[in-house]
Give the backbone structure.
Amino acid sequence: MSDLLLSIRDLHVAYGKVQAVNGVSIDVPRGEIVTVIGANGAGKTTLLNAAMGILPARGAITFEGANILRRPVEDRVGSGMTLVPERRELFATMPVEDNLMLGGFLVSASERNEQIEQVYTRFPRLKERRRQLAGTLSGGERQMLAMGRALMAKPRLLMLDEPSLGLAPLIVADIFSIIRDLRSAGVSILLVEQNARAALRLADHAYVMELGEITMSGKASDLAADPKIVETYLGIAAH
Amino acid sequence: MDSTILLFLVQDGVTNGALYGLLGVATVLVFAVTRIIFVPQGEFVTYGALTLALLDTGRVPGTVWLLLGFGLVAFVIELWMSRHELDARRIGKEALAKIVLPCLIVAATFWLAPMKLPPWANLLLALAIVAPMGPYLYTIAFRPVAEASVLTLFIVAIGVHLSMQGLGLLFFGAEGLRATPLSSTSLPVGPLVITGQTLSIYALTLVSMAALTFFFNKPLFGKALRATAINRLGARLVGIRTSLSGSIAFVLAAIIGALTGALTAPMTTIYYDTGFIIGLKGFIAAIIGSLASYPLTVVAALVVGIAEAFASFFASQFKEVIVFTLIIPVLIWLSLSSHHVEEEE
Ligand SMILES: Nc1ncnc2c1ncn2[C@@H]1O[C@H](COP(=O)(O)OP(=O)(O)OP(=O)(O)O)[C@@H](O)[C@H]1O
Ligand SMILES: [Mg+2]
């Protein structure tokens, strides 16, 4: 088996007549963090949603060597990929603990109990609030819950859509360090971010997306040093 | 009014209330999984009752053709909706569930109906005919708009009610029917006589209430069904098959409805629209239970049943008015005391 966990080739996704993703190819090697950065409306969320199976797409998607293009979302979860979507999609009127347990819906009861302890160790805040309704959590707590719920499925690939969205810098640093820990624990990560600076610092490999196409790609550290990237995505603060 | 009359009225009210409670419980169940305010719940009562009554007389009920038709339409819609995920295995599975299964049930009915089976066997056959209609109906009418707002789903439900009632008239005609009782046991309690029929109604209501309360709150699978209604996309992202959740809710609702019908049919003459009136009272009970609590729904249904019994004794021409007016103070109280968590988009 190749060391590619996820491989996307020539992917096309359209909303009606509007083409949102146009011939995108992306690889996520095992054990790496791969990031996709790009401006608002570039098509990053569309790309992740198609990879997860929420949106129908044309092209090729292979996960662990198997073609999953026509597999429904639920099958993809079962085969080891999960998505933390941009809007989190929590079960608002259920307690934190039920949200987490449902995250492990497809794993065995013993794995579920094991996994929830790990999630509580990683996010002690969630353990304190395990009886609170998810809909009443703060933004940062909701993000932790969304990640915790995704981890309950014991994914080999975790796809994150803007995990830093709307969070204070201190919490962003927390979340990013957890992502780094996850990589050490053997979870591969596909990360979509607005916060290009932090994403490039964290990732092994990076892609730049513009208007539905990949315009640049390379080692994250190389891209972080590229003058064009510095100017467009890292902004004045880099000068 | 002496105490014997009082007792009779209470018994009558409790029996009807238990039937309303069953339907109310089914309404809460469907809402908890799909967010659909399922107005046509009473149509399953009619279908179940008339199917059973016709089987009792040795005839093949028209519902078999409905079953075939629903299955076929559901098959086509299913394939269309999953066109991006189709393969031979999936098509085969759908054909089995939506074409082969109804064909087998129809064949069995043609074979068994003329034999005039005992009442319990006819009951099972009637359930087999009506139960699959629940999931087919879900696929036909609700799956394509599953993400829509509660209001849209409600309007679709009213449409489904009207068409199911129309189809009922078409397939059963306007004449009323009665079925033979399942049990002829009866035991005298003071001045009252409690029949096996009413006892099975009480038991069924209590068991459904307790079982559903447990099922939706304790095991993870029950929570998963509720999660489907709370956030459909979230549910899919953790691996819950949301269309399966809906089908499970609808098959349970159809079974509860058909059973209610089968238990009512020996006690009163059922016409093509009788189920709707019974269902409406169950619906009131479900609303009083805030579409959330099974025990509260059953209690409310008993109140509705008893109120109805007294109303028909003291002011029979205002019976329905009195019963349906009950809901107004409750709605006012609910709207004043509600602090519900906003429905997430
Ligand atoms: N449901 C939809 N219907 C029509 N167009 C859509 C829909 N969702 C997204 N789009 C369009 O597709 C394009 C890509 O959107 P997408 O959400 O993938 O961008 P993004 O890169 O994630 O942006 P952001 O950084 O703001 O989240 C945008 O032009 C958007 O307006
Ligand atoms: Mg986005």
Notes: The longest strand of chain A covers residues 4-15. The interface with chain B takes residues 52, 54, 56, 70-74, 77-78, 82-83, 85, 89-94, 98, 101-106, 112, 133, 135-136, 149-150, 152-153 of chain A (CB under 8 Å). The pocket of magnesium ion (ligand 2) is lined by residues A 44-45, 86, 161 (CB under 6 Å).
